[in-house]
Design brief:
Among the domains are: 61 residues, no CATH class; 80 residues, Sandwich (Immunoglobulin-like); 98 residues, Immunoglobulins (Immunoglobulin-like, Sandwich), CATH 2.60.40. By secondary structure, the protein is α+β, with helices and mostly antiparallel strands. The protein is 22% helix and 41% strand. The longest helix has 29 residues.
Length: 434
């Protein structure tokens, strides 16, 4: 009985082990991963030598999964709009013009490409160009932003040769005068309507005495070295000045124009990246052959700056501050051109006029230039000498009257003694009261 149960136990155990072995052998083959589409057959991991039931492998279909890409959205930017213009519409040969472009739309980030007459090129929003040949000059700019591009024609300027009118050299006392040269400039490049602006002329050569006649946009006129006006209409305003000296006459167009606009346009122009330049003399009044310093202050653009000075009596210089000695009396002016490292350029007339005084020389020159003949000159000089002698005599008389040598010292001594004697008597009679 014991042997029967033992055989039965081992038989069941063997059957159980066989079943589990079959299952564990089948699972790895069935749990495989397939990476190719189509039908795949699952093999049985046993042979039929043990008389197990046989199975026919069944195909397992494998399908590619379907993926749908996520949608990509691109922001939509407005179309680019571009405007451009020169700061001057007519210049002399050798002068410069600044072309400026203004862009809006796109993504707000812009790149520029300039082209035009006389090999004009550049990649900034504003570029400056000197023209040395006569004729009409044009420029155009292409602006790029976020895959968009717009090309805009910026108009034309006229380059011409300045016209000078000279009479024969005028000689006084066998001294020839230098040829007359003139320049003029406005104190700003931009202004609002009805805001005051000033045009200033600077003259060299001649006999040092000048007359001025102004003309320009909106009926500008005047007869001084500087003329101030206001403009009620928007647009670019120009001016020119005619200067006469010692029989010479020169008419000169001013070196810049003034863009007149409303408050919005003025603010836009003021913030367009131009240089803000101011200059002045220190001190404002000197005598002849004394030093004066011309100074310039700059903001905007990129440092370092380059400077170029011009002005009365051959003033030149390339520093931020320059020192000048003037040998002739009169009003002196200065003009400075500043160029920044990023290519921006501004020319400015200094805000004050330097007064150089030499009364004796001025009086002599004035008397000489108003003389009509040698006889008259002699007469005038004689009268002048007589007048000077009388003035000197009066001055000597006044000096003699108050000279210490003419004081009556004897009477002064007697007066001092009397005062001391009176003081002693007063003290004696009033000793008890004191």
């Amino acid at each position: 009985m014991t042997k029967y149960f033992a055989n039965k136990f081992w038989a069941k155990s063997a059957a159980t082990i066989g079943v589990f072995a079959f299952i564990f052998a089948l699972i790895p083959s069935m749990a495989g991963a397939y990476y190719n589409y189509g039908s795949h057959y699952v093999p049985l991991p046993f042979s039929n030598s043990y008389n197990y039931p046989t199975y026919t492998p069944q195909p397992v279909p494998v399908y590619y999964p379907t993926y749908y890409p996520s949608p990509v959205y691109y922001p939509t930017y407005p179309a680019i709009t571009v405007s451009c213009s020169p700061n001057r519409t007519s210049i002399n040969t050798g002068d410069y013009v600044t072309w400026s472009a203004y862009a809006s739309g796109g993504n707000g980030l812009y790149s520029y490409s300039w082209s035009g007459t006389d090999s004009l090129y550049g990649s900034n929003s504003s570029i400056s160009k000197n023209y040395y040949s006569l004729g009409m000059k044009y420029a155009s700019v292409t602006v790029y932003s976020n895959g968009q591009s717009v090309t805009q024609n910026c108009g034309n300027i006229n380059v011409y040769q300045p016209t000078y009118s000279y009479s024969s050299p005028v000689y006084y006392y066998n001294t020839p005068y230098q040829n007359l040269s003139v320049s003029c400039i406005a104190n700003t490049n931009y202004a609002n309507t009805n805001s005051p602006v000033t045009w200033t002329a600077s003259a060299n050569g001649g006999n040092g005495y000048y007359t001025y006649s102004w003309s320009g946009s909106d009926g500008l006129y005047g007869n001084g070295q500087s003329v101030s006006t206001t403009y009620s209409s928007i647009g670019n305003k120009m001016a020119s000045v005619t200067v006469n000296s010692a029989g010479q006459t020169v008419t000169q167009s001013c070196g810049n124009t003034i863009a007149i606009g409303n408050t919005y346009n003025y603010a836009l122009a003021s913030n367009s990246g131009t240089l803000d330049v101011g200059c002045y003399s220190d001190p404002a009044n000197i005598n002849t052959n004394q030093p004066v310093t011309w100074n310039v202050e700059v903001s905007g653009g990129s440092e370092p700056y380059k400077y170029s000075w011009t002005g009365s009596d051959g003033l030149i210089g390339t520093q931020a501050s320059i020192i000048k000695y003037y040998s002739k009396a009169g009003e002196k002016n200065a003009i400075v051109t500043v160029t920044s490292a990023d290519g921006k350029t501004t020319t400015r007339a200094c805000s004050n006029t330097l007064a150089v005084a030499n009364p004796s020389t001025y009086a002599k020159a004035k008397t000489t230039t108003t003389v009509a003949s040698n006889t008259t000159k002699a007469s005038v000089n004689t009268d002048t000498s007589t007048t000077n002698a009388k003035a000197a005599s009066a001055e000597n008389s006044a000096a003699a009257l108050f000279s210490l040598a003419n004081v009556p010292w004897g009477w002064v001594a007697i007066l001092v003694i009397l005062v001391l004697f009176a003081t002693v008597l007063y003290l004696l009679f009033n000793a008890k009261k004191i």
